[in-house]
Amino acid sequence: MTEIIPKSMQAWRKHRGKMEPIWETIPVPSCPPNGALIKLLSSGVCRSDHNLLTNEVQPHWFKDSFTLGHEGCGRIIELGSDIPASPYAGKFAIGDVVALLAVPGCGSQDVNECPECARDLPQLCERAHHSGIGEDGFYAPYAAISVRGLVKVPTGVTPSQAAVATDAVTTAYHAIHRRGQVKKGEVVFLFGLGGLGFNALQILRAIGARVLVSDVKQENLDDAMEIGVDKADVVPTRKDVRDWVRENGWEGKIDVIADFVGMKQTFSDAQHIVRRAGRMLCVGTLSHDNTVHMKVGIRKRLSIIFSYGGQVRDLEEALGLIAEGVLNPMVEDGKIKDFPSVLKDLEGGKIKGRISLLHD
Ligand SMILES: [Zn+2]
Ligand SMILES: [Zn+2]
Hints:
Layout: E1 8-15, E2 22-27, E3 35-44, H1 47-54, E4 65-67, E5 71-79, E6 97-101, H2 115-118, E7 142-146, E8 150-152, H3 159-179, E9 187-191, H4 195-207, E10 210-214, H5 218-226, H6 241-247, E11 254-259, H7 264-273, E12 274-282, H8 294-299, E13 303-306, H9 312-324, E14 331-335, H10 339-347, E15 354-358
Parallel strand pairs: 9-10, 9-11, 11-12, 12-13, 14-15
Antiparallel strand pairs: 1-2, 1-4, 3-5, 3-7, 3-15, 5-6, 6-8
Bound molecules: zinc ion (ZN) (2 copies).
């Protein structure tokens, strides 16, 4: 079955100097020799889309205009001419439904060519294409992507689940497994049960960690209890976290802080409530600046660990957990036409979990 590919398509684009997304007609991209042409099924909306639209202090390689959307799932409709002679030969076929990792890196193993990829940090690579982040992404019917960014979607995972898995789940997964190295039986205090934090909660529980949770919204705490968090492990809203830890006998027993909020208060509380030689895992960035309490940090010999993005193996493992039913990312379907209003609702805190936009 050969698909008739149109010459042009409508896409949601960012133009430098314009803070609102523009719905415009652009050419359908051609298939890259080392990649695939994808027909999009679902594209996840992320809070960072707002930042991409409104914050123009961005890396030098950002294009003057580009198609937004960095969380995608689609079907392969064309494979590049270099694939059969590459290590990816036979891994993918036309018709496969794949999740799309926006920043898979260039993959160079030469430190002079790409210090990031050569040190296993492809999510920080500046050489390769960044889908929807300064370069063309997934709020369009078709997208071109390197084969390095493709992960086959297992059966039982919907396109919208797969789309949000590429960012909201993969970022949480990378933070907890690779950066935090959280182990079974460890006590983890989790700040924030939003889009990423709720996925983090499920990933932590799948490891077998004991998770204590804190959020400003009661409904998020209710959701946590619904998936099995004991009421005794939930900090009541408005309760002072340090008092709660002391009163509930957790002082000196919290191995890891997973901060998916990143505000002054959470970052400060984290340093006080974590055990000696504990780890603070920083993922959320609601405050631009936070304070390190030097005496606390040094005397307790804390590790402050930052995490950013994720990698193909994280995405593969995250999709596996979703297929097994261990992880259930909160996502609802929307329509691609509604991107601007969905983004406003997300910014306004009106959306629980995530919305992924279907392409018709
Ligand atoms: Zn994102
Ligand atoms: Zn690279």
